[in-house]
Write a structure and sequence with these properties.
With about 375 residues, the protein is an alpha+beta fold. It has nine helices and 24 strands. Strands 6, 7, 15, 16, 17, 18, 19 and 20 form an eight-stranded mixed β-sheet that branches. The model has no long low-confidence stretch (mean pLDDT about 90).
């Protein structure tokens, strides 16, 4: 059997693409391993994502009690003073602090119910022959005419046929903290810069706290004890953790969070979406919104079999990357307290000097 379209990779982009293709009357085969991680970081959903979820008919899942509204975020950036960004300034409504795993599970269930054929395997090998994709997924041999690459920064399809660019080496160490205190914690999100990078802390709906430290992968990191110890050397975040009696509750983990992108984002028989097309610094809060946007627009272009729409998608990805890099440079350069330290010195010119993003050729 030859499938018209295959979606490779799970996560938000893969689920949204599989769902949108199914809503367009297709029956995509969706190849994605079921990850059983207890916790998946990346929980801050921008309010700009809400209209996209409405397009998918998925916005009702945000009303689950496992998520919470992020009515205010405080940041100490450029000075020690905490500055509040209140949700009242967002016309779309407040951002959402997600239970990321629950959100992805709900989106997956919706995609399968709509008609996506889910195969819970990773793609072990892929090749192109006679204009068709031949995909090995465990015991399954899949043949498809077109593929959506939603395999994250690995971009297992796109990286074979286009160039992947990387602007930095940002990585994240994170751990969950819990408290035995009876007092309900104030549900806040805090961002705090320091000499070696920056910290992020957010209270989840279940009152656990996620603490992230962002620095470059080639700079020294922390083991479990050091992560907690250094979190308590901050100012705002330390005060919050101490006030509510939070202590680290699991092993610290490290993941890649660099700014990287594929150019062009489309090619003969494939399109890259989500982090496979463009992966953003978590400081931007663009990741999940971009995953949804890219999945919807690429899927709509494919359903319509509209070459112009697919090229417009790739051009918009390229323009978005250029705008993002300019904005990110402005944000990082506004922190001037540690310009002589490696993390901050690297960001003084990196994003401003990035070359223009190549445009897509006529290959779709």
């Amino acid at each position: 059997m030859i499938h018209q379209v295959a979606v490779l990779g799970g996560g938000i982009a893969g689920a949204a693409a599989a769902l949108r293709l199914a809503q367009g009357g297709l029956h995509p085969v969706w190849i994605a391993q079921n990850r059983q991680d207890a916790f998946k970081p990346g929980e801050h959903l921008s309010a700009a994502a809400i209209p996209l979820l409405k397009t998918l008919g998925s916005d009702a899942m945000l009303r689950s009690e496992v998520h919470r509204h992020a009515h205010s975020t405080y940041s100490a950036w450029g000075s020690d003073m905490l500055v509040e960004r209140n949700a009242i300034v967002h016309l779309e409504g407040p951002p959402i602090v997600l239970d990321r795993r629950a959100f992805e599970d709900a989106l997956t269930a919706q995609a399968v119910a709509a008609g996506a054929q889910r195969i819970e395997q990773d793609v072990g090998n892929l090749r192109v022959a006679d204009g068709l994709w031949h995909l090995d997924a465990g015991d399954n041999q899949i043949t498809a005419g077109f593929v959506f690459d939603a395999t994250g920064r690995k971009a297992i399809v796109a990286s074979k046929f286009a160039t992947r660019f990387q602007a930095d080496k940002l990585s994240c160490q994170y751990a969950l903290f819990t408290s035995s205190a009876l007092e309900d914690p104030r549900p806040v999100t805090l961002i705090e810069a320091e000499a070696r990078g920056w910290w992020y802390m957010s209270v989840l709906a279940d009152q656990r706290v996620i603490v992230n430290f962002y620095s470059d992968a080639d700079l020294p990191g922390f083991d479990n004890a050091q992560l907690e110890e250094n979190a308590h050397r901050t100012k705002a975040i330390s005060a919050y953790l101490s006030d509510y009696g939070y202590r680290i509750s699991d092993d610290a983990k490290r993941i890649t969070t660099n700014s990287s992108w594929i150019a062009p984002a489309i090619g003969a028989g494939w399109v890259a979406i989500g982090d496979a097309s463009a992966a953003f610094d978590p400081l931007s809060s663009h990741g999940m919104t971009t995953a949804l946007w890219s999945a919807i627009h690429a899927a709509d272009a494919f359903v319509a079999q509209d070459r112009g729409k697919m090229h417009a998608y790739a051009e918009n990805v390229a323009k978005g990357v250029e705008q993002y890099l300019t904005a990110l440079h402005q944000v990082y350069s506004s922190e001037k307290r540690w310009v002589d330290r490696p993390f901050w010195a690297r960001r003084a010119g990196t994003y401003a000097k990035t070359d223009k993003v190549p445009k897509a050729e006529n290959t779709f």
